[in-house]
Hints:
By secondary structure, the chain is of the alpha+beta class. Helix content is 15%, strand content 32%. The chain has one domain (13-227): Fumarylacetoacetase-like, C-terminal domain (Fumarylacetoacetate hydrolase, domain 2).
Amino acid sequence: MASLVIEPPAAVTLPVAGTEARFPVRRVYCIGRNYAAHTVEMGGDPNREPPFFFQKNPDNLDPSGRFPYPPASSDVHHEAEIAVFLKSGGSDIPVDKALEHVFGYALCLDMTRRDLQAEAKRLQRPWEVSKAFEHSAPVGPIHPVAEVGHPTSGRIALTVNGTPRQEGDLNQMIWKVPEMIACLSRYFELAPGDVILSGTPAGVGAVERGDVMDISVEGLGSMTVKVV
């Protein structure tokens, strides 16, 4: 067996609620502008257009409950979402079979360096510098489908220091979870360990060091993340 020239990076694993088990992460896909009100908020067309995706890195997922304010930005925004964890995958997955590939769901935040994203948009450049930085996806424990089913409706909300910022309902997603999976599988070969972030409702806004963010989703509980 060939030797490795460096130590392999540690696998990214996340806790499964109520167990000692861990979920290994392979890839992280994120859908953009998946709530009509947020699409308007970001200057887009709320009509149902083909979905688009960007990616974060597996080690951006952080279950620590702490969000270190990132460098190179003075305008970092919260985006409350749910994360979808796949137990199996494939290519060209039919919509009516897509949910068979889901292991579970978790609360998640898509933290965004909004000033860098705005500059990337202006220059028509990729978003990774604004989206895929360290600790940019605070995440809660994974709730298996066997315990929570497939949440298709229910309140999603976020407060900062107790003040309401975001509120919506999962049923307001333009592209539902089965459609996201089916669409992604036309462009990528999905696999066990893949994660999909669902998009965020309206009300995104800036945070500062010392702020406390609380996200809740009906059926998936709540999560507190402190900006440090």
